[in-house]
Amino acid sequence: MHERRMLVSPARATASYRDHQFAATAGFFRSPMFDASLSNGVRYLIAARCNAIWSTSRAVAARLLRNGHPFVGRQCPICRTPLGAFSPVGHLITACTDPRIQAYRDTIGFSREFFVLLWQHAHEVAGLLPAPDVNSLDLSILVLGGTLCGGATLGNDWLAGFSQMGTVVAPPAGRVVHFLQRTMWSYSSSLWAYHRNAAGQ
User: Fold this and answer.
1) At 128, phi and psi to the nearest 5?
2) What is the pTM for the complete model shown?
3) Above 90 in pLDDT, residue 131?
């Protein structure tokens, strides 16, 4: 029930969407690879690109969590790690330490090798020389179909897939949707387990 709760101001949604140039991949949900069985994953991806996923700090500020909740500041409700500059979904994709999330990252193919190929290709598409170390925060933006401030982007290859260093990489957009379809229930249930009931308790 509570996984449907999302909140963002129009100004914040517009800024997030504009800053990372998500408009360049705006039509992804029309792809035939996303059938009705993946509707929740698609919905969560759209919300993530607009910064419209509830965080612990926003839920606390909105007084939606009952007294005694365990959250301190802006943190992952699953592994309790501070998010820092990460979006909630960016953290799940690249950094969450919960064994269940880590296991599904492995299952879906979010491996170190995949992230390196994606990082290199995004810079190659933009005609840039990639930094030697993959920046996890920037990587999370690329995985969601965005563009970095320096211009690195997967562009159409985010939805179409690509070949990098002799390796054929399936469309990252498909992996992200499948990942969110499977993992956001855990995020939402961990957060909203402390939701106030109708009596405000």
Assistant:
1) -115, 155
2) 0.87
3) no
